[in-house]
Design a protein that fits this description.
562 residues, mainly alpha, 62% helix, 0% strand
Amino acid sequence: MELKDYRRIFRPTDEAGQLDNISRRFSWFRRIINLHDEEYSNIFPESWNVGKVLCAKFTETTAEDINTLLTRLGPKLTVTTLLESLQQALDFEAFISRKYGIQLSDVINNTSRGNPSRAISVVFEKHMGVFVEAQDRAIADMTAGWRMPTRASLEEATPKEEDAHAVLQSSGDLFYFYGQTLEQCAKFTTGRPLFDLFLIFRKWLKVYAEEFLLQALRRKEPVAKDRKSSETRYSALEQRDVCRILNTADYCHRTALQLEDKVRDKVDRALEDKITMQPELEAFLGVISTAIGLLLRDLEISTDPFFTSMTRTSWTSIDTVTGQLSYVLELARTVDACVDIIKSSIEQKKYLRNFYDKASSLLITKFTNGMVRSRPLHDTGAEQMLLDFQTLKACLLRMPSTGEPDSIPSTYTKAITKQAVQVETILKVVSAPVDPQEPFIMNYIILIGDSSFSNFQKILDLKGIPGIAQNNLLDHFLATTSTKDDLPSTSFLSALDMDPGTAQITTRPSLTDSGTNTPRSGTPGITTPKPTERREVFSDLRRLVTFATRAGGKKVDHEEVN
C-alpha cells in the first residue's frame, strides 16, 4: 500500500520517470521509508521486516524501470548521464546498507520477494560499454598528435643536462589517464566492464609501442649513404633522443607491470586469470632492443673510417714500433665521445651494460676483421697492431666507468679480457720470427694449443709467408704435431674467418616487430668450438693426401738442390 503511488508517479514514459530524474525516485522513497519508521513500524511485528520488504520491492521495481530507460536510450545514452545515474544508485544502496547495517544484497535476501540480481546498480553494468567506448575515443584523441612525424612528438626540445634521463611526456600522460580511468571504473563495477577497459588499455599500449615509439626510431635510423662521411652519424641530440625513447619504453614496461597487478587486484575473481599484458610487455622490450641496435649501428658507422684506415696501412713497411698509430687514437676518442653521451642518457644500468657488452663485441669483431684484411703483417707490423689493440682494449675497459671507485663491474672486465686475449694471442704468434722454425712452431702449440693444419696455415697467411717457405713450415708443423697426441684438433682459431668482407656487422634493426638484430654475441669474430678429447693425427683423407704430396715435393726439391 505504501508503494502504490510509486509506479503512477514515476512511470518510465513520464517526465518524472526519466533517467535524469532518478534522484527524485530516491528522494521520494527516503520520505516513504522515514514515514514508515516513524508512524507504521510499530504496527507490524518486527519479524515481518516490513521496512526491508519495502526496500526490496522498491529496488526491484526501480531496477526494472532503469533497465527499460537505459535500453530505450541506446546510442543516445551519454557517459555523463550513465555515470551520474549510477552514482546516485550506488549512493542510495549505500544508504540502505547503513540503515540496516548489512549489505543491500542481504537486505533483499531477507525478503521472500527479493531478487539480488536486480539490484539497481547491477542493471547499469551491461550498459557500461558506453563508458568503455568513451575512454577508447578519449585515448584515440590523446594519441592522435603523438604519431605525427614531427620534432614535437619528442617534446619539442633538447632535454636539459640535468634532465638527461627524462622519458617522453606522452607516456606519463597515458598512464596517468589509465590510472584515473581505472579508479573511476572500479568505483562503479569490477566485473566485465572493468575487464573490457583493461583490453582497451592493452590495445593502446601496443599502439604506443609500435606506432609511436618504434616509428620515432624509424625516423631516426642512421643511414650510411657515404660511410666515409660523418654526416651519416647521429648528432648528440639524436643520440639523446634515441636514449629517451629507450627510457620511455623501459618506463612503460615497468608501469604496465604495475598496472597489470592493480587491475588484477580490482577485477572480479572470475576474471583474474585473464589479466595479462605479456604481448605489450614484449613490445616495449622490443623497442628497447631496437633502440640499442640503432645506437650500435650508429657506433659502427662512426668508427668505420678508422677501420678503413687500418686496412690501408702498409703494415709490411713498419720497421720499428714507436707508439700507437693515429687511426686507433682517433677510434678511441670517437668511441669515448659516443659512450659518454649514451652513458649520461640511459637510465637503467642493465641496458647500459647490454650496450657495453654488444659495443665491445662489435668493436673487437671489427678489429679482428681489419686484422685479417690487413695481411700480410710481417713481424713488426703484428707488433704494432698488438700495441694498437691495447689502446682499443683500454678504451673498452673504461666504458662503464663513472669516475667512482669500483664503478666498472668485475664481470665486465673479465668478459672483455676473455674476448681480447684471443686477438692478442693471434698477434703474438704472428709477430714471432719463423727462423728458426722449431721455436716458432712450439710457440704456436703453446699459445694456440691445437694441431690444426688449416689453423696453422692461417697464421702463416697473416704473416705473409711465401709459398715454398710456407710449405716447409707446414711440413715441419705436421711432423711435430703428429707425435703430440694430447693436442686437440681445433681451437678458437678454427672459427677465424679469413675472408670477412667489408659489410657492416650490425644489421638494420627490424622496425616491424618487437625484436631486433644486434651484433653477433659471444667471442667476437672468433668462436671456440667444442674441443675433442683426443686429436686424430690425420683426421681426414684430404690431409693425408696433402701430407704425402708435400713430403714427395720436399724430396724432389732436395734432390734438385743436391
